[in-house]
Design a protein that fits this description.
- The chain is mainly alpha-helical.
- The protein has one domain.
- 73% of the residues lie in helices and 0% in strands.
- The radius of gyration is 20 Å and the shape is rod-shaped.
């Protein structure tokens, strides 16, 4: 079986420990690519475990990005509310 060329997302992807450097959208594209290959049984057996591991790492990294973004947005709106109250009260 011929080895499939890696996509741009796969080639641009840092090692698993460096996923935080990859933009969320690139992680999402790579995850989608892996899932499509798995769903279509296109992943060679000798790459199955590594692709499953990569998908799991992508999911965890994406979750962390979402969690951090949610926290940052919450903080921004809490600060906005505090400033609004001080303006209205003062």
């Amino acid at each position: 079986m011929a080895k499939r060329p890696k996509s741009e997302a796969a080639e641009a992807a840092p090692e698993a420990g460096d996923l935080s450097k990859l933009p969320y959208e690139a992680k999402e594209a790579r995850l989608e690519e892996i899932l499509v290959r798995l769903d279509n049984s296109e992943t060679p057996m000798d790459e199955l475990a590594s692709e499953a591991r990569e998908a799991a790492a992508l999911i965890l990294s994406m979750h962390e990005t979402l969690r951090a973004t949610r926290q940052e947005i919450t903080t921004v709106f809490e600060e906005l509310e505090r400033r609004k109250e001080s303006i209205e009260g003062g």
